[in-house]
Amino acid sequence: MTLRDAARAACASHTFRHNWISRPNLKFSLETLGLNRNASRDVITRDLISKIDLIMQNRSGISMKALDLNLYSCENIDFAYLDSWLRIAVTPGIEELILTLPLPSIVFETAPPIVSVYNFPCSLLSNGSGNSIQYLNLCYCTLRPTAGLGCLRSLTRLHMYCTQITGDELWCLLLNSPALVCLKIWYCEEIISLKIPSLLQGLRFLEVAECDRLQVVESNAPNLTTFYFEGFIGEISLGGSLQVKTLCMICLRQTNIVCYARQSLVSIAPNVETLTISSPNEMVNTPMLSSKFLHLKLLQISMGMAFSGVYDYLSLVSFLDASPCLENFILAISQHRMGHASILGEPSHDLRQIPQQRHDKLKSVTITGFCSAKSLVELTCHILENTTSLDCLTLDTTCHPSCSVTKSDKCHPLMDGDSLVEAQKALLAIRRYVAGKVPSMVKLNILEPCSRCHVVESLVSTAKLS
């Protein structure tokens, strides 16, 4: 029911009005208040503030369980309104608080310019008012907890996005949140060292992303099961936790992450079962080591294109050899121009082989962005020749992510001429070197450029596949 319909119903029925005013969960946004998204920012701010203020003042003295304030579309908000609304909402009994503020404004009249950021009143969480809160989500504000912060004994989920808080202040907050289960930290640039105390016995999920100044992540939470990291890798320690089963590392501004993962992640998370790695470029081959991922079942590696062509895809056998329980292997290669030497024109007896490597649990292998690079074909052939358990092999020759024709008969992304030429080379390499090695019990899926991409077929027909 929209706000206008609710107001009309309230005018017609005192019972409905009482129930609506006493509603325990409130969510305020442009959509829920039925405001015009195409209006100017000033008009949006004026209307949103006036309507929220009227509703919140009518709720004074009435406890609520959840408040979701989405003010992202506003600008130049008078922070006194926020203070007033939070005093009304954050009382004993509140369970969820989501606060999404607009991008901080900059006051250029001063020297140096002042960035105006809302300072969340932590005092509201003291004196028992924060005892009931279970979910706290803060976006584009400042959080300065102190030693006097009350115990948030019910807090299980803490999400912070573009929140100004230091590592020491976060440590203070975590010490007062013993029931925490899920912690997400995004774009919190004041944090240099993130430390998780062993007090958090129930912490299961930790997500840290794009904290540019972060140098150290040290978790002593004994029961952490999922760790998601995105950004620049510094020093990472999970306390040798035996419970971490899912680990994801996405590093788009740092090279040789696959090599780092092979060398370091066994000691960081020895019992990991699902491992996802994303690297923009690999200039160092993956080393063969004696350390093992004894419980790894799903391995997903995303790699950017090394235009120099120095990386040897066959070296990824190191991961396969180190993972005796591996069942699913996904390799995604993003490339628009291949820098590796093509296998086309090579005699089949020149293909390298790695003897005495068996992968007896591997069932599914998917390679997207498959190209005619010799080392990639060698990796594929190695898997086929040394895996008796394989059920399915998928080779996607389109750009990563795969192209596809939409209902509007448009392809996204449309492959350019170079990519389409390489896709045709990849198909030829599959037919010449791979298809004949596929056992009859293995399903081979070959994905080709979509029909829309073939608008440049004339370009492909003139290219030399050599």
The DSSP helix count reads 10
Number of strands: 20
Give the proportion of residues in helices.
Answer: 10-25%
| SS content category | alpha/beta
As a whole number of angstroms, the C-alpha radius of gyration is 28 Å
Return residue spans where pLDDT drops below 50 for at least 5 consecutive residues.
Answer: 456-464
State the strand order across the main sheet. Answer: 1-2-3-6-7-8-10-12-14-15-16-17-18-19-20
- Average the pLDDT over all residues and give the rounded result: 85
Protein name: At1g61320/AtMIF1 LRR domain-containing protein
Organism: Hordeum vulgare subsp. vulgare
Domain At1g61320/AtMIF1 LRR: 55-451
Pfam family, one: LRR_At1g61320_AtMIF1
Task: Describe the protein's topology.
Elements: H1 3-12, H2 14-21, E1 25-28, H3 41-58, E2 66-70, H4 79-89, E3 96-100, E4 105-107, E5 114-116, E6 135-139, E7 157-161, H5 167-175, E8 182-186, E9 193-196, E10 205-209, E11 216-219, E12 226-230, E13 235-237, E14 246-250, H6 257-268, E15 274-279, E16 298-304, H7 317-321, E17 328-334, E18 364-368, H8 374-385, E19 392-396, H9 417-434, E20 443-447, H10 457-462
Parallel strand pairs: 1-2, 2-3, 3-6, 6-7, 7-8, 8-10, 9-11, 10-12, 11-13, 12-14, 14-15, 15-16, 16-17, 17-18, 18-19, 19-20
Antiparallel strand pairs: 4-5
Helix pairs in contact: 1-2, 3-4, 8-9
